[in-house]
Amino acid sequence: MEKNSLEVREQGQKIYDIYFRDSFEDLMEAMSGLGLSGRKVCIVTESHVAPLYLKEIYDLLNPVCAKVTTFSFSAGEAHKQLKTIEQLYEQLIRNHFDRKDLIVALGGGVVGDMAGFAAATYLRGIDFIQIPTTLLSQVDSSIGGKTGVDFIQYKNMVGAFHQPKLVYINVNTLTTLLDREYASGMAEVIKHGLIKDREYYHWIRNHQSEILSKDSQILAEMILKSCDIKRRVVEVDPKEQGERALLNFGHTLGHAVETLMDFSLLHGECVAIGCRLALKLSGKRGMISEEEVKEANALFDVFHLDQRFDRLTAEQIIETTKSDKKMAGGHIRFILLKNIGEACIDLTVSDEEMMEVLEEELE
Ligand SMILES: NC(=O)c1ccc[n+]([C@@H]2O[C@H](COP(=O)([O-])OP(=O)(O)OC[C@H]3O[C@@H](n4cnc5c(N)ncnc54)[C@H](O)[C@@H]3O)[C@@H](O)[C@H]2O)c1
Ligand SMILES: O=C(O)C(=O)C[C@@H](O)[C@H](O)[C@H](O)COP(=O)(O)O
Ligand SMILES: [Zn+2]
């Protein structure tokens, strides 16, 4: 695989690099600018990822860093909670971590969001790097510095913007990922095409069989393309004052479904549900054609992103959406599509419009 990288910039200054690799071979080289010899490192990971990749990362870091400790919690969204963060703080304190020390997030989006949040808040902020191991975390969550936890059942309700010092993507880690988790990542990939890049959306459609069979060349290309789309959005609006909200396409109703289904559906599965509903709403408003709505739905179908959520009612979903973060001055901030490849922020979606699309979907 070609060794690629992308620079993420803010106000013209490089903040960090994203490395695209098919092994961990040059991880230490990528980290060489971080002055590891004088730093303690805590590798944060979880129970599924630890047996697969922790030893390799530990063995690479151990000879180089002042000290390496590990913190592993039980896998799953249910543990993306402040309780887990408290346990991590305790371990960092016991090991005398100070401001110059470093956290390494090794895992999917749950690890990355939590390790990043601990790094943002411990001693008012220490450095961290991302080593994402799921498709979803490689194309989305490891980039852009959104970190945080769920609070009780409220999705990502407590968090901070804190940028990593490096994102190191080893595409080969996806060989151990379950198909359902892989498909969940595809929801965010399709989202990137739908909101920002029509050509990319058609590229995904045209390469669906290689993507399904995890062709390593196509997969590497897809991850790079998706990261580049997300990079461009977060560079212009790192703290979601405007344009970055477009990355929330499918998340307005998607997050409500994720919460109400008690996290039995995966994040990407709920994003796909939310995208389908937002597409339908955009179609009903005459913004995009019925043909395009059908086509986009068919692409979600290809990746088996067609989960049912009919044990919920439309009323419940609308009510839960209102207690999410996506409220702006009393209005729900909705992302709609003007075209395939072009999204917009809309504050005028009414309860009646949401009710109509939800009821049709729940029929
Ligand atoms: N910060 C952001 O910008 C952002 C963006 C999108 C999603 N998210 C968050 O990310 C989370 C979802 O991330 P996710 O889909 O990576 O979930 P996850 O971290 O729970 O990982 C999914 C599953 O795959 C397992 N796993 C991880 N890597 C593996 C590997 N290489 N081989 C085998 N199994 C592996 C995990 O143990 C877990 O069971 C959600 O909490 C979501 O809110 C954050
Ligand atoms: O990076 C962003 O910005 C996103 O919105 C990406 C989303 O895919 C991701 O799920 C994010 O965590 C949602 O953020 P939230 O602020 O709506 O919780
Ligand atoms: Zn998401």
From TrEMBL:
Keyword Metal-binding part of the UniProt annotation: yes
GO MF annotation list: 3-dehydroquinate synthase activity; metal ion binding; nucleotide binding
Gene Ontology cellular component list: cytoplasm
Keyword rRNA processing on entry: no
Keyword annotations from UniProtKB, A to Z: Amino-acid biosynthesis, Aromatic amino acid biosynthesis, Cobalt, Cytoplasm, Lyase, Metal-binding, NAD, Nucleotide-binding, Zinc
Domain 3-dehydroquinate synthase C-terminal as annotated: residue spans: 185-327
Catalytic EC class: lyase
A Pfam family the protein falls into: DHQ_synthase
Essential cofactor(s): NAD(+); Co(2+); Zn(2+)
Compartments (UniProt record): Cytoplasm
Pathway stated in the Swiss-Prot or TrEMBL entry: Metabolic intermediate biosynthesis; chorismate biosynthesis; chorismate from D-erythrose 4-phosphate and phosphoenolpyruvate: step 2/7
Binding site for Zn(2+): 188, 251, 267
UniProt-annotated binding residues for NAD(+): 109-113, 133-134, 146, 155, 173-176
Broad class of where this protein is predominantly found: cytoplasm
Chemical reaction(s) catalysed: 7-phospho-2-dehydro-3-deoxy-D-arabino-heptonate = 3-dehydroquinate + phosphate
EC number from the UniProt entry: 4.2.3.4
Top-level taxon: Bacteria
Domain 3-dehydroquinate synthase N-terminal intervals: 72-183
Cofactor binding, note field: Binds 1 divalent metal cation per subunit. Can use either Co(2+) or Zn(2+).
GO biological process: amino acid biosynthetic process; aromatic amino acid family biosynthetic process; chorismate biosynthetic process
Function per UniProt: Catalyzes the conversion of 3-deoxy-D-arabino-heptulosonate 7-phosphate (DAHP) to dehydroquinate (DHQ).
Family statement drawn from the similarity comment of this UniProt entry: Belongs to the sugar phosphate cyclases superfamily. Dehydroquinate synthase family.
Name the record gives this protein: 3-dehydroquinate synthase
Species, as recorded: Anaerostipes rhamnosivorans
